[in-house]
């Protein structure tokens, strides 16, 4: 990775072995990021009808233009450049469209929330990723509707469980929706 100038992320879990793995990663130059809670839930139990506020619509997106809008919204939410996300999502949609579903919630033509669902062939779990909402649109049920819609998609495909690595902001919401904490994860990042 050094020769290519690419960073590497190693996601640790609270139960990983050896017990000193995080010490070894730190000694090798990896830097810990914020810990997240790993939550799982039954897709059928989470698949309630999504209720969106008036004026907000939900739709699947696949075009490069829409994926750039997702990346711009994510950059705003996280306060950092996430323009790379458009290319990453476009690559995944282009190479295996059956394994990813990128959704946006829009109001007045603006992306106010985005999230995606990732399927892994042969697994009973689908991943809930990217769930981010602009600050001024939080607390209106958009994020909850996005979770419900993705759970519906998983259930319709016969995938019984969904999982997510949740931030401290998202974990309480997801727990109230019926997901259950099973462990924690901490990403360790090494940059050249």
Brief digest:
This protein has 192 residues and is of the alpha+beta class.
Instruction: Report on the biggest sheet.
Output: 9 strands, mixed
CATH architecture type: 3-Layer(aba) Sandwich
User: How many β-strand runs?
Assistant: 9
Query: Based on CA inertia axes, which overall geometry fits?
Result: globular
Helix content: 25-40%
Q: In CATH's first tier, which class applies?
A: Alpha Beta
Averaged pLDDT: 95
Describe this entry's structure for a reader.
It is a single chain. The chain has 192 residues and is of the alpha+beta class. The protein has one domain: Aminopeptidase, CATH 3.40.630.30. It has 6 helices and 9 strands, in the order βαββαβααβββαβαβ. It has helices at 21-27, 43-46, 64-78, 84-95, 142-156, 170-177, and strands spanning 8-13, 31-32, 36-42, 56-61, 100-107, 110-119, 125-133, 161-166, 180-190. Strands 1, 2, 3, 4, 5, 6, 7, 8 and 9 form a 9-stranded mixed sheet that branches. β7 (125-133), α5 and β8 form a beta-alpha-beta unit. α3 crosses α4. The N and C termini lie close together (8 Å).
Layout: helices, strands, pairs:
Blueprint: E1 8-13, H1 21-27, E2 31-32, E3 36-42, H2 43-46, E4 56-61, H3 64-78, H4 84-95, E5 100-107, E6 110-119, E7 125-133, H5 142-156, E8 161-166, H6 170-177, E9 180-190
Parallel strand pairs: 7-8
Antiparallel strand pairs: 1-9, 2-9, 3-8, 3-9, 4-5, 5-6, 6-7
Helix pairs in contact: 3-4
């Amino acid at each position: 990775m050094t020769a290519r100038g690419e960073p590497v992320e190693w996601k640790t879990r609270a139960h990983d072995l050896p017990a000193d793995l995080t010490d070894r990663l730190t000694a090798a130059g990896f830097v810990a990021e914020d810990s997240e809670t790993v939550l799982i839930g039954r897709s059928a139990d989470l698949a309630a009808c999504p209720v969106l506020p008036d004026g907000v619509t939900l739709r699947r997106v696949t075009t490069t233009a829409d994926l750039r809008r997702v990346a711009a919204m994510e950059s705003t939410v996280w306060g950092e450049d996430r323009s790379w996300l458009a290319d990453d999502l476009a690559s995944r949609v282009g190479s295996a469209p059956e394994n990813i579903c990128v959704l946006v919630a829009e109001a007045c033509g603006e992306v106010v929330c985005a999230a995606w669902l990732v399927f892994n062939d042969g697994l009973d779990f689908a991943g809930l990723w990217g769930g981010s909402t602009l600050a001024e649109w939080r607390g209106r049920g958009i994020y909850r509707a996005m979770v419900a819609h993705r759970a519906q998609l998983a259930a319709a495909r016969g995938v019984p469980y969904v999982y997510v690595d949740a931030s401290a902001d998202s974990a309480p919401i997801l727990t109230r929706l019926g997901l259950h904490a099973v462990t924690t994860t901490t990403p360790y990042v090494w940059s050249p």
